[in-house]
Structures are given as C-alpha cells and as structure tokens.
Amino acid sequence: MPELAPRWSVVDQHLRCRIRCPDFAAAMALATRVALLAEAEGHHPELTVAWGRLGVDLTTHVVHGLSRNDFIMAAKIDLLVDPPAP
Fold it and tell me: Is domain 8-81 annotated with CATH 3.10.450.50?
C-alpha cells in the first residue's frame, strides 16, 4: 500500500480510488485505457464513469478479498494516471 498513490484506500475488502478528470470525455478516455490494461492483465476492476471522475474498485473474487494482483493492478493504473517523467 505505501507504494500506491494516496488516492487508494481499502474499503470493504476492495482497493478503491476515485480519480478526478477535467470532464466526462477525459474520464471515459481514462476508463478505456484502464479497461485495455485490465484485459491485458486478466484482472478486471469495477469502473464507474461520471462527469469529472473515474471510480476504480479492485478485488479478487476467488479469495473473497484482496490479493497481490489487486495491488499490482493499482500500481499499473497509477502509471496511467501519473506517467513517469521522461
């Protein structure tokens, strides 16, 4: 958890974040990038798109809670939101 951006929290055995976006189109574009990442990783979060924000909830249903994969996926989502400087 310390390696993740402060936007993440654990709520009811889910790793959750809410990401602010400038508008609906930006939230939808980010949701699409997260969806493509999720498909590549085989680990699919619950996404909620609204005007100016994207909600992401990660959990591993097989273990009825959080697994290492949830934290790895969260870290990869952080890289989409805040890419490292070149």
Answer: no
